[in-house]
């Protein structure tokens, strides 16, 4: 059938070339509809319990998406007129930021004080009085700020050397993808104006909105830098190893057509890109080369042996159609297994790459042969040096098969033994490389002011107005005090600090009354009086719900790994269960969501990889028409991923969200080498009646160079991806390249001795 198809293709080559170009142009036009999702929530499925808890919290209180300006005067003192004036100007300008609903800073902090029987609520630093402030007034502001629990380690450092302006952003529910970039652009413009107005000021930008904006920025940066590098590596490798300019051009065109088809269908299907799925073109580019190389190596090999172009192409298609189809099917199964992932961006990545791989197969067995038949292909009639080297390598493998079998077996077992050293751990701030501005700004903020990692608890007693109950307030304060005693806790924001201060204010600012009110009615009156005195935009909706039955407690944390964060959450739940079971509340925040996603994704991908393994095994057994050979193939197919994770455990020991998909992703890829080697081995056994040793020689001779070329390109491609500034992509690229290299090692050194031992 393959031969008949090849002969049909020869007759209709011009029609195939023209129709392919027209079809790809139509499909590729869908790329104009591609959008980029800038919301970190895209990493979580709609039924993710942590996402549901976080959204419920945001529906109850003010949303917590924010932009934070961190101001660090070069003289190390915030409390001078110039710096405070910069803070005041930045605070005022931040109200004009798109989608801003609240601005909190040192200057507009609502400071309360008693004046007889009256309660005065004013800005801590009134802008109109700032120019005339003397040293004593500045010192008074400093004393208030660094001793105010609501400010210190949140908007002002304990040493008074760094301060922050926090802008709360409420993005629309139906975003177009332009909202976050517009906010980021406005914020960056304010930073430049602040620096221009005060050259002695360093300003850093962090916050969840800036993290959202970093996602598309790192992806665009990767596309602009990594894709050209990948193209260069592929072209150089093909020119050196194929030694044919026309074959290299043909492969280049297949890559372009495959990427255009995949990205065009992505646009038509309405799939929004994210940093993981934005790496699809690089992966498709790498995988598309494999099909081309196998066809072209056989084609050029036949021509170098003296066959004419048409006969060489017909023979190449005849002997490669089945293995290329099989490798395409197994690769697609491997990438489709990523639909089991709990993170939608990885599902999108799997689907986009699967489309690209299918397109690459179709174009490789239609457009590429037609193009080779049309273009002039000139080769020298000779046995290539590369084939001679592979033949000598095959002789070495056959001669030392027992040593290689046991030696490679021990090496595999030794590496796999290090797999348990891997610990599931993640830090979502470190998803970004240190070269990314957001990462540097966040680490500076965490070291000098406050943390981006937060956990929110909605604490209530189920009774309207219940937050004024003294016993409830004492329970909230006990919980806050427990958190303050924990390592890595930088700040705890709680309503009880407001109630303590109000109680002191209503007793003539007597420090002895800096404690929680003992009477519910008094507490309610204090709170009502305070709320009525607050200016627009600075109310308490970010801390109490409408019915005043619950209050939000926010914990600001140092940069913690997912394991450390989950351990702290478990301790918090144990404390609540033991001490205040009536106000049990689970923590909710982006930090916790990212901490849980790695574990959830590992579990879901284990199922996906298992399903893919079963399907791939059935495909191989059916296609190779041998249960024994199909089962033998499982060893070189499973060993590379296990060896890769073993080496990772030995070198790094940290497995995060990006690595949780590698086993499923690589399973379909590493099968390719095994399929091509086994198909040639079985062809020699069945068609030519060779024994197992001669069949191994034949397999190495016919497919050895092609496997070497494709592995070099695949490893190079994923090593280029490992240079990404987005950690999920870079870790995935590095471990995948290691796994693919181990796959070639298994197929060249372990599979042949295994066949000669078991297939006698």
Write structural notes for this entry.
With 760 residues, the chain is an alpha+beta fold. The chain is 63% helix and 8% strand. The chain has a 4-stranded antiparallel beta sheet with strand order 2-5-1-6. A 3-stranded antiparallel beta sheet has the order 8-10-9. It has a two-stranded antiparallel sheet with strand order 3-4. Helix 22 (627-651) runs antiparallel to helix 23. It starts with a helix and ends with a helix. The model has no long low-confidence stretch (mean pLDDT 88).
The stretches of 5 or more residues where confidence is low (pLDDT under 50) are none
**How many strand units?**
11
The total of helices stands at 25
The percent of residues in helical segments reads 55-70%
Q: Mean pLDDT across all residues, rounded?
A: 88
Largest sheet: 4 strands, antiparallel
> Helices and strands: which structural class?
alpha+beta
Radius of gyration: 32 Å
Bin the strand percentage: 5-15%
Side by side, the strands of the main sheet go 2-5-1-6
Shape: elongated
Terminal Cα span: 30 Å
């Amino acid at each position: 059938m393959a031969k008949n198809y090849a002969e049909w293709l020869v007759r209709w080559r011009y029609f195939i070339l023209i129709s392919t170009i027209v079809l790809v142009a139509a499909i590729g036009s869908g790329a104009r509809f591609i959008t980029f999702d800038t919301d970190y929530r895209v990493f979580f499925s709609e039924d993710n319990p942590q996402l549901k808890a976080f959204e419920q919290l945001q529906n109850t209180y003010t949303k917590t998406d924010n932009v934070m300006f961190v101001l660090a005067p070069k003289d190390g003192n915030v409390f001078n007129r110039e710096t405070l004036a910069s803070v005041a100007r930045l605070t005022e300008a931040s109200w004009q930021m798109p989608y801003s609903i609240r601005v909190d800073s040192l200057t507009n902090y609502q400071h309360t004080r008693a004046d007889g029987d009256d309660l005065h609520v004013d800005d801590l630093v009134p802008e109109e009085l700032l120019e005339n402030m003397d040293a004593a007034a500045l010192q008074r502001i400093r004393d208030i700020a660094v001793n105010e629990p609501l400010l210190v380690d949140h908007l002002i450092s304990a040493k008074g050397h760094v301060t922050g302006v926090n802008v709360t952003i409420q993005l629309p529910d139906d975003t177009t993808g332009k909202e976050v970039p517009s906010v980021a652009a406005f914020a960056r413009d304010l930073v430049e104006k602040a620096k221009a107005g005060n050259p002695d000021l360093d300003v850093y930008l962090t916050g969840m909105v800036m993290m959202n904006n970093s996602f598309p920025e790192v992806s665009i940066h990767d596309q602009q830098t990594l894709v050209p590098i990948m193209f260069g590596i592929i072209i150089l490798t093909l020119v050196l190893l194929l030694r044919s300019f026309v074959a290299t051009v043909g492969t280049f065109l297949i890559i372009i057509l495959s990427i255009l088809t995949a990205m065009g269908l992505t646009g038509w299907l309405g799939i929004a890109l994210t940093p993981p799925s934005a790496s699809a073109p690089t992966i498709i580019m790498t995988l598309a080369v494999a099909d081309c190389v196998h066809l072209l190596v056989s084609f050029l090999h036949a021509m170098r042996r003296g066959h004419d172009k048409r006969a060489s192409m017909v023979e190449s298609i005849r002997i490669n159609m089945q293995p290329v189809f099989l490798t395409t099917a197994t690769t697609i199964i491997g990438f489709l297994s990523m639909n089991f992932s709990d993170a939608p961006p990885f599902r999108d990545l799997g689907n986009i790459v699967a489309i690209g791989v299918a397109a690459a197969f179709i174009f490789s067995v239609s457009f590429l042969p037609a193009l080779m038949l049309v273009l002039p292909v000139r080769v020298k009639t000779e046995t290539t040096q590369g084939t001679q080297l592979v033949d000598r390598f095959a002789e070495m493998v056959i001669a030392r098969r027992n040593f290689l079998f046991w030696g490679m077996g021990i090496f595999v077992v030794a590496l796999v033994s290090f797999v348990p050293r891997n610990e599931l751990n993640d830090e979502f701030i470190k998803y970004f490389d240190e070269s990314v501005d957001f990462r540097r700004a966040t680490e500076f903020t965490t070291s000098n002011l406050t943390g981006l990692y937060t956990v929110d608890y909605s604490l209530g007693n189920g009774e309207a107005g219940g937050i004024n109950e003294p016993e409830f307030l004492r329970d909230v304060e006990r919980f806050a005090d427990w958190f303050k005693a924990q390592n890595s806790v930088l700040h705890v924001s709680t309503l009880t600090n407001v109630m303590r201060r109000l109680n002191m204010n209503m007793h003539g600012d007597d420090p002895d009354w800096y404690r929680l009110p003992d009477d519910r009615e008094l507490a309610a009156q204090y709170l009502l009086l305070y709320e009525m005195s607050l200016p627009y935009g600075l109310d308490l909706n970010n801390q109490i719900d409408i019915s005043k039955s619950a209050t939000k407690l926010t914990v600001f944390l140092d940069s913690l790994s997912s394991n450390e964060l989950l351990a702290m959450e478990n301790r918090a739940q144990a404390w609540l269960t033991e001490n205040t079971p009536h106000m049990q509340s689970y923590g909710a925040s982006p930090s916790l969501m990212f901490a849980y996603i790695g574990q959830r994704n590992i579990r879901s991908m284990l199922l996906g990889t298992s399903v893919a393994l079963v399907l791939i095994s059935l495909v191989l057994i059916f296609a190779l028409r041998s249960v024994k050979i199909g089962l033998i193939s499982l060893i070189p197919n499973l060993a590379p991923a296990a060896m890769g994770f073993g080496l990772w455990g030995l070198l790094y020991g940290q497995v995060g969200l990006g690595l949780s998909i590698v086993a499923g992703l690589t399973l379909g890829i590493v099968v390719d080498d095994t399929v091509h080697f086994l198909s040639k081995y079985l062809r020699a056994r069945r068609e030519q009646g060779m024994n197992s040793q001669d069949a191994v020689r034949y397999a190495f001779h016919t497919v050895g160079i092609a496997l070497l070329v494709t592995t070099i390109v695949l490893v190079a491609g994923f090593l280029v991806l490992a240079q990404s500034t987005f950690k999920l992509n870079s870790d995935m690229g590095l471990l995948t390249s290691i796994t693919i290299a181990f796959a070639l090692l298994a197929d060249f050194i372990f599979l042949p001795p295994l066949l000669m031992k078991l297939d006698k």
